[in-house]
Amino acid sequence: MKKISKNLVGMLILLILLILILAGIYVFGASHYTTHFFPNTTINGISVGDMTVEDVKYAIQSVIRNYTLTIRERGDKTETLTGDQIYLQYVDDGEIQKCLDSQNPYSWPFRLASGRTFEVPVGYTYDKSVIDSVLDSMACFQPENEVPPTDAMILENETGLYTIQESVEGTQLDREKTRLAIMQAIEAGETYMDFEELDLYQKAPVGSSNEDLVAKLNDANTILSTDLVYDFVDRQFVVDETVVRDFMKKDKNGNYKIDHNKVTEWVQELANETDTFGLPHEFTTHSGRTIMLAAGGDYGWVINVEETASDLYNAILEGRQGEIEPMYVYRALDRSSNDIGDTYVEICIESQTMWCYVDGQVVVDTYVVTGNHAMGQDTPSGCVWAIDGKEADATFNEAGGVKVKYWLPFVDSCGIHDASWRGAAEYGGTTWLYNGSNGCVNTPEEAAARIFYNMEVGYPVIVYYSEDQPVGTQPKVAAMPG
Questions:
Q1: How far apart, in whole angstroms, are the C-alpha atoms of residue 240 and residue 266?
Q2: Residues 6+ apart with CB under 8 A from 27
Q3: From edge to edge, which strands make up the β-sheet containing 321-323?
Q4: In 3D, which of 233, 290, 299, 222 has the Cα closest to residue 255?
Q5: What is the pTM of this model?
Q6: Can you name the residues that pair with 396 across neighbouring β-strands?
Q7: What is the mean pLDDT of residues 307-335?
Q8: Dihedral pair phi/psi, residue 409, rounded to 5°
Q9: What angle do CA 185, 189, 191 make, to 5 degrees?
Q10: Which residues, at least 6 apart from 288, have a Cβ–Cβ distance to it below 8 Å?
Q11: Average pLDDT of span 138-145
Q12: pLDDT of residue 109
């Protein structure tokens, strides 16, 4: 019995010692995990098992110091920004201590394998004053790498028309927007940002869809669609794209405009080439002979340059097509090079003959009596004049009240009229030398009537002395009807 008692006592002692040892270990563990995290514990992905709060703070600071922000830029370029560059520092805000305080140290035997996982906000700070210097050091902010955006613009394409060239994006960043975006990324703990996705690049103010630009394009192409013709019968003067392009100019606002001065210059050249008023005229006489009439007279075309230029200017702006008519100061009968045409009155002083042509056919062939040569009242000759008026039953008060049935003045007080006081034998021959008119062309009544009803104001009257000498003796005294 005594032997059994000794063994029992020994076992009890061993049991007590084991309990004491286990209790000591438990107490030690509870004390240890009061200041240390359980094994297999992570905070924000950092393994902190058996670390104190200070150890964890140091580990977090190490992670923060290794912080890298990768920046993707336009053109597949990348740059990095590190925590050291911005003096990134951990700021203890008590969150780590809270994590430790939340674990029950007395449950440590049951947490040795499982541990815990924490996701907590980590406080940190950085030196905002160095952000600008960091930006200055980045490749994307170097002058040679900053390509400013280019506005969309109107250019001529291969077809000769105008088209919009797309705006060029460039690589120039909006510095202030970029500065704020980088600071936001740092403060959010982000490790990647894309400048393109964040819309940080400067944009061209004028894009290809800009309404004003599109309107300018349409205006420019409308101008180029101009296709006008000044048709002068045997000559045509075309105002098309090639001509209009010379008129166009681009102002500082990118507007394509027509230079009114250049249009006026073009019209002036047109007038110089086609005006005939008062100029020498080539004329084919009744006999078929061609003579040169002198400058002078009052028949022919004169383009009103100012009004024609304004009309052409507006037509170009509207992109008009087809025939266009000049504006005139004076008009003649025919717009071809031979502006006399084939309807006119022809008078030869030497032969004392007058013909009236209508559409190339002779409707009057008559002898006449022209101005009294002996009295210096010769009928003006050598030029082309236009019929200035048309009056039936006219009275010439300055000639003592002489009355005529048909009166067609063509230069000053000189004109064609019937002369009831003359006998048939007086017409033609040499009557005009000593018994001629006061300067007018005295005409048999029937012939005068036929001319009167076939001619209109503005129709040409050609008077020449002879085919060999178109210009004859000019009047020495003023003509008057009669």
A1: 13
A2: none
A3: 236-239, 227-231, 321-323
A4: 222
A5: 0.65
A6: 402
A7: 95
A8: -70, 145
A9: 75
A10: none
A11: 93
A12: 84
Strands of 13-116 (E only): list them. Answer: 42-43, 46-47, 68-73, 77-82, 89-90
Rg (CA), the chain: 55
**Which of 326, 334, 377 lies closest to 357 in space, CA to CA?**
334
Query: What tens digit of pLDDT does each residue of 180-197 get?
Result: 999 999 888 899 999 999
Tell me how far CA of residue 177 lies from CA of 68, 184, 284, 295, 348, in angstroms. 20, 11, 86, 79, 93
Read off the DSSP letter of residue 143.
G
Sheet arrangement for strand 344-348: 361-367, 353-358, 344-348, 460-464, 383-386
Q: Containing H/E element for 450?
A: helix 445-454
**Alpha helix segments (H runs only) across 188-329:** 211-224, 241-247, 260-274, 305-317
The two tokens of residue 141 are: 């902010």
The residue among 339, 329, 327, 330 whose CA lies nearest residue 230 is 327
Q: State the amino acid at position 82 in one-letter form.
A: T
How far apart, in whole angstroms, are the C-alpha atoms of residue 408 and residue 363? 17
pLDDT > 90? residue 283: yes
List of E strands, 19-67:
42-43, 46-47
Helices within 163-210 (DSSP H only):
175-187
Q: How many residues does the chain have?
A: 482
pLDDT, tens only, 80-110: 999 889 888 888 888 888 888 888 888 888 7
Q: What are phi and psi of 78, to 5 degrees?
A: -135, 150
How large is the average pLDDT for residues 24-42? 82
